[in-house]
UniProtKB/TrEMBL annotation:
Keywords: ATP-binding, Nucleotide-binding, Transport. PROSITE patterns: ABC_TRANSPORTER_1 (PS00211), ABC_TRANSPORTER_2 (PS50893). This is ABC transporter domain-containing protein. InterPro entries: AAA+_ATPase (IPR003593), ABC_transporter-like_ATP-bd (IPR003439), ABC_transporter-like_CS (IPR017871), MacB-like_ATP-bd (IPR017911), P-loop_NTPase (IPR027417). Belongs to the ABC transporter superfamily. CDD domains: ABC_MJ0796_LolCDE_FtsE. Pfam families: ABC_tran. The keyword Iron does not apply. One of its GO terms (cellular component) is membrane protein complex. The lineage of its organism: Bacteria, Bacillati, Bacillota, Bacilli, Bacillales. It comes from Alkalihalophilus marmarensis DSM 21297. SMART domains: AAA (SM00382). One of its GO terms (molecular function) is ATP hydrolysis activity. Residues 2-238 form the ABC transporter domain.
Length: 239
């Protein structure tokens, strides 16, 4: 589903170059749940932006379902992103003056799909994330966990091929974080949803099939929950 080949990305402050990604290679299968971990500044969030087509690499190739992201024009990337990529952010990024239902409907409205079938899809997503009865509530009146549920429903209402989550539990306590992660896992298993999640939290990463450990702009190691030294290695890596 996702292939990242020799991807490099730098940012500049004047003439000063900061190399953020230094030749990254990743393959992610359809229906896989992958967590990306690493210290601040290691390049994990930059990679997520590139996967979502919010930016393009300086060098290398990113393919999503055989579509080469960096070869698209900006308008093409926007349309591809809207139809194929769902985003979930740490700060929810909801429209607070709108209701739960209106927030979830927003991607369908933007893509001209707010028809009878689209409205049925909205109802299904509200039920899937456990917010039946809250449809008309303004999201500003909801708890953090409920707002993140709205964000997940909005991200998935268009049935994207890939869900990208950037610290989706960063603003939640452990109990609410576990609820959100369990919800993501349920979509992953029930709908074979491909998920790439950036997190600094070992607890959150433990819900993924694989963990890609980033350090200094490159991959330090790829580790599975099944490996014997999984917990000890993660603890030492993030220390």
């Amino acid at each position: 589903m996702i292939r990242v080949q020799n991807v490099r990305k730098s940012f500049y402050q004047g003439k000063l170059e900061s190399k953020v990604l230094k030749g990254v290679n990743i393959d992610i299968k359809k229906g896989e749940f992958v967590a990306i971990m690493g210290p601040s500044g290691s390049g994990k969030s930059t990679l997520l932006q590139l996967l979502g087509g919010l930016d393009v690499p300086d060098d290398g190739t990113i393919k999503i379902d055989q579509q080469t992201i960096e070869k698209m024009k900006e308008k093409e990337r926007t349309i591809f992103r809207r139809r194929n990529i769902g985003f979930v952010f740490q700060n929810y990024q909801l429209l607070h003056n709108l209701s739960v239902e209106e927030n979830i409907a927003f991607p369908l409205h933007a893509d001209g799909k707010l028809n009878q079938e689209g409205r049925q899809r909205i109802s299904e997503m509200i039920e899937a994330v456990g917010l039946v009865g809250f449809e008309k509530n303004r999201v500003s009146l909801l708890s953090g966990g409920q707002q993140q549920r709205v964000a997940i429903a909005r991200a998935l209402v268009n049935e994207p091929r890939v869900l990208l989550a950037d610290e989706p539990t960063g603003n939640l306590d452990r109990a609410k974080a576990e609820e959100i992660l369990a919800l993501m896992v349920s979509f992953h298993r029930k709908h074979t949803q491909t998920i790439v999640m950036v997190t600094h939290d070992i607890f959150a990463a433990g819900f993924a099939d694989r963990i890609i450990l980033f350090k200094d702009g490159g991959i330090e190691r790829v580790i599975s929950r099944k490996e014997d030294d999984y917990a000890e290695y993660l603890a030492n890596f993030m220390a």
